[in-house]
Design goal:
By secondary structure, the protein is mainly alpha-helical. It contains 5 helices and no strands. α3 runs parallel beside α5 and α4 packs antiparallel against α5 (about 175-205). The longest helix is centred in the middle third of the chain and has 50 residues, at about 60-110. It starts with a helix and ends with a helix.
């Protein structure tokens, strides 16, 4: 029994450290994500000067196409980073469950002794908690990725259409705005679907 207790204590220590390091990794990845997403802004400055001057038709098609490619790549990259960070967050929840199980082990052993250890436990001992399918703790993270990535997807669509504006015969202010709105909706839905798929996959594996 002593060996089992020593093992559980060591396991508790290791998993607790893994839990906190995973949360640190999430913060670090998000910080680098923000730095990474600032890169395309440098390419936006030169293009925006011509757009602001209402010289959309004469805007260099090569410059607009380059902006479209850059913003599009970074929008997709942001979605991939979000999926990876969500995976880290779900791993942190799994570690939290493991820590809960260790507490439960000592709480159950304490029920048969004079010292009721569960009377002193504040943190949970439920190995089914926290839930992988709950959105608590994810909303701020996912919302940040969704907003930034959607803005970049819209920018990519904008510059792509500007680069081929002369070959298009449509209402720039009508159909084009409708297209931008459709891209916005598609991007938001894509992020939500990726978020839900990650949660469902984790729940099916461990629940």
């Amino acid at each position: 029994m002593a060996e089992s207790s020593d093992f559980m204590l060591k396991e508790y220590e290791n998993i607790s450290q893994a839990h906190f390091k995973t949360n640190e990794s999430i913060a670090i990845f998000f910080r680098y994500y923000l730095l990474l997403m600032a890169i395309p802004i440098a390419f936006l400055g030169t293009s925006w000067e011509q757009v602001e001057a209402k010289d959309v038709v004469n805007m260099g098609s090569a410059l607009a196409a380059m902006n479209a490619a850059i913003f599009g790549i970074f929008a997709v990259m942001g979605l991939c980073v979000m999926y990876y960070v969500i995976g880290l967050r779900l791993d942190a929840l799994l570690y939290a469950r493991t820590v809960n199980g260790t507490r439960k082990y000592f709480a159950d052993r304490g029920k048969n002794s004079k010292d009721k250890i569960d009377d002193f436990l504040v943190l949970p001992t439920n190995m089914s908690s926290p839930k992988f399918t709950a959105s608590n703790g994810f909303l701020g993270l996912v919302s940040s990725f969704t907003i930034l990535d959607s803005c970049y997807a819209i920018a990519a669509t904008f510059f792509f259409n500007v680069s081929s504006y002369e070959s298009r015969n449509w209402n720039f202010e009508g159909q084009f705005l409708a297209l931008l709105f459709a891209i916005l909706v598609a991007s938001v839905v894509l992020h939500i679907v990726a978020f839900e798929c990650a949660k469902i996959r984790m729940s099916e594996t461990w629940d």
